[in-house]
Specification:
homodimer; about 220 residues; Rossmann fold; 8 helices
Amino acid sequence: MEIKVLKNVMMKNNAIGGDNRWRLKQSKVFSLNMVSSPGAGKTTLLKHTLGRLTRNHKVAVIEGDLYTSKDALALEQFDIPLIQINTEGGCHLDARMISTAMDNIDLESTEILFIENVGNLVCPASFDLGEDKMVLLYPITEGDDKPSKYATMFQKADLVIINKVDIAPYLNVSPEKAAEEVRKINPDCEILTLSATKMETLDGWFEWIEKEFSLKSQE
Amino acid sequence: MEIKVLKNVMMKNNAIGGDNRWRLKQSKVFSLNMVSSPGAGKTTLLKHTLGRLTRNHKVAVIEGDLYTSKDALALEQFDIPLIQINTEGGCHLDARMISTAMDNIDLESTEILFIENVGNLVCPASFDLGEDKMVLLYPITEGDDKPSKYATMFQKADLVIINKVDIAPYLNVSPEKAAEEVRKINPDCEILTLSATKMETLDGWFEWIEKEFSLKSQE
């Protein structure tokens, strides 16, 4: 009984996710679902990313959070469409939330849409939002053994960003080992290593976005 | 419909949690539910804690993890009852899992039971396992603004341990600010500040366990 209901919920989510994907494709919007544990650096990375990308791209952001608008407030300096979703304790964003948020964004005037998911390394893996790419931030401060422990999320990621590597020397961890562990779980994803607080380490990330945006535009 | 089923599931969980609590009380076992984000240091703290407590207490451990036995293997040096629960992707431990695990532990020969939950700062908050105390590990490496963002978990915690404070000088974070943020969400919980990797910072934690174990024994 419980499993049956859960299946229905998931099928419905995935159907709406499919609708979202179609709408985004029609409007030629490149979309990214940013996932991670709490405090992994999603908002910090997004802040630096908007500073760079808004120079020559039309960007919109959907912020997911359990209760607060802290992450949206951290981005309010940017003159872009910015939608805050509060899940009221819910552990993930779902496709319907994104559909409703998209109703409030002029997709025709948007090139790149960032969706910052709830900080949770388990549940968001099961909910397709209709995004083009899932980007997983993995801070090395969590230890270099996490991929096999949270395998579902790592398997679904298109890009894994090993973050906070400037802190690695002060911890008993290795970004290289972390990358190897990611590879064991997901041999096909791309991997970047950076520190979201250090602008000079973000070139690879910006290049990845431009490459993927360009590929999407040619579809 | 969906909400109704969820309520039933929660009621059933809480009923079994109540049974667990009764069994633990009958056997005079002091039990702790250790919760946190991924990579917060639960296993590291547990390892050092077992090294100390097994000298003069009979300790048992239930390890929760999505897929692997890594955390249990990290503790295999200790000659204690150690049960690994794999949730197979599930985002939290529930009371039935703990009930089954307890069937495999001689509770009459146990004084202190540690339950290490799945690394997730959202979902475990909703599932009473029957434990005496919920202990939340909050690594300062996640930033000092997390309590209001993950309020449900912080509200339920009896003890919040601000961990990895030895790394704070290398980050733009303040353990004092983190403690203030915890207080705003949960004025009644106790707060400890330590580094789970540094044995010399753990005295307050050991004293807290002894105090609570002693109080439980007098019930």
